[in-house]
Amino acid sequence: MSTDPRQERTLGQLVASATQDLSTLVRSEIALAKAEVSVQVKKAGLGGGLLAGAAVIGFYSVYFIFTTIAEGIEALGLPRWLSFLIVTVFMLLVAGVLALLGVRKMKTVKPTPEKTIAEAQTTVAALKSAAEHPGTTVPAPRPEWDRKDLPAVAPVTSSGNGSAASAPNPSRDA
Fold first, then answer.
1. Burial code of 102-111, b = ≥16 C-beta within 10 A, e = fewer?
2. What is the pTM of this model?
3. Where is the region Disordered (predicted)?
C-alpha cells in the first residue's frame, strides 16, 4: 500500500472514517442535550428554591407570630385576637408571594431538549434521504487530515451513471 495521500481511500478507511464521523455526531448531540437540559435544571432549581423558601417562612412564621402578637398586644393595646390575626395574615401573604413566584418559575421549565431533538430529526432525515437516493446527496468535504498536499480540484459531477465516486478525476490521478 502506497503512502500517497492522493490515492482513493480503501473500503476499510471509508468505514473507519464513517464510524468516526458517526461517533463525533453522537457525541455532539449528547453535548447539545446536556447543555440544553442543564439550563432547564437551573430554572427548576431556582423555582424549587423559591418554593422551599416559602415553605420555610410559612413554617417558622408560626413561631414568630406568637412572639410578635405578645409584643403587639402590650404596645398597641389591641385586643389579643386582632393582634394574632394581623401577624398571621402578614406572614401568610409573604409565603403566598414566594409560592406564587416559585410556581411561575417552575412553569417556565421545559424538560425536553428541543434543539437536540430537532437536530437529531434533521440528521435522521438526511440519512434516510441518502439511503433512499444514493449518489444524489452532496458528500461532505474530506476531513482536513485527508486533504493535505492535495491539489485544488473542481467538484466532480455525476456522469449519468448515478455515481459521482466512480468518475475519474484527471487532476488527482496524474
1. beebeeebee
2. 0.38
3. 129-174
